[in-house]
Amino acid sequence: MAAIYTNAAQTSPAQRMQRAIEKQDWQGIFSRATQLRSLINGSDAVHHINSRTIAYTNVCTIGCSFCSFYRSPTQRSAYVMNVEEAVNFAIQAVQQGAVRIVIQGGVNPECSLAYYTEMIEAITQALPDIQIDAFSPREIYGMARHHGSTIESILQKLYAAGLRGVTGSGNELSPDQISTGWRDWSHVMQVAQQMHYRTSATLVWGFGESWQQRLQRMDELQEMHTHALAKGEPGFAFLMLWPVQQHNRMATYNEIAQVIAVARNMFPTLPHIAAPYLPDSALAQVAIAAGADLLVH
């Protein structure tokens, strides 16, 4: 592990990790990752969250090149759930064992602000003891833009409706999102943390980006988390590393393990590193061996 800490006082964590990767010191990186997991959580215990997602609409005007979920407003397969449908979905999910409900869709300009607040009010009233994390920073940014409002005002209205957590989706390293997408995502997250929302971060990788680009984004996320904690704000509850899965972009288990191990090294104060959101027990074991300690299903 010496490569990770060579000249530590003169270099940043990202630079030290870049050096370790260039030297192919994967044994040291993996060893330190599992040590950090035990040190941060006090044990080698793996946590599990049974979570269900309400995909309330598949209409989205962003049009990310890698997304197979979104539809344009004019496509026949486009849909928007009504509030009653969303509530029924949430109730059924809890009856099936879910302890966390995620509400997430697309950036749909046809959805009114009242639609979002009524959905939150109805679900939190029906399930007052269930953790609700709703809307990605990109969705919240879209709400503000389409309704002529500010991020602060949108988050205040959602908070008044009963929302206490936002999701971390929309943070991708794709070529069309790596700069402007990050700017909008990070701004919404900073405001949410200032308002003491529960937040998490998802980092979607595997678009052909370099290790340097991955490390830069991890460094930016760690800096956000550290600054939030220093100000008495909650920071991120966990980080999920999600490999993009397309017919021409399929990450190997070894690549997934490497990214998770590097992330655990890069986030020494983050409580949890989550395994990818994939129903694969073998992949979960790979992720745990690499330093992950949280399984979200």
Total helical segments = 11
Helix-strand sequence: HHHEEHEHEHHHEHEEEHEHE
Low-pLDDT runs: 1-7
How can the largest sheet be summarized?
A: 3 strands, parallel
Mean pLDDT: 90
Tell me the radius of gyration: 19 Å
What portion of the residues fall into strands of 2 or more residues? 5-15%
CATH level-1 class: Alpha Beta
Q: Which architecture name does CATH use?
A: Alpha-Beta Barrel
Please list the strands of the largest sheet in the order they lie side by side: 2-3-4
Total strand count, please? 10
**Overall SS class:** alpha/beta
Structural overview:
It contains eleven helices and ten strands. A three-stranded parallel beta sheet has the order 2-3-4, with helices on one face. It has a three-stranded parallel beta sheet with strand order 5-6-9. The model is unreliable at 1-7 (pLDDT under 50). α6 (137-146) packs across α8. The protein has a single domain, classed as TIM Barrel (Alpha-Beta Barrel). The longest helix has 20 residues, at 211-230. β2, α4 (83-95) and β3 form a beta-alpha-beta unit. Helices cover 45% and strands 13% of the residues. It has 297 residues and is α/β, with parallel strands linked by helices. The radius of gyration is 19 Å and the shape is globular.
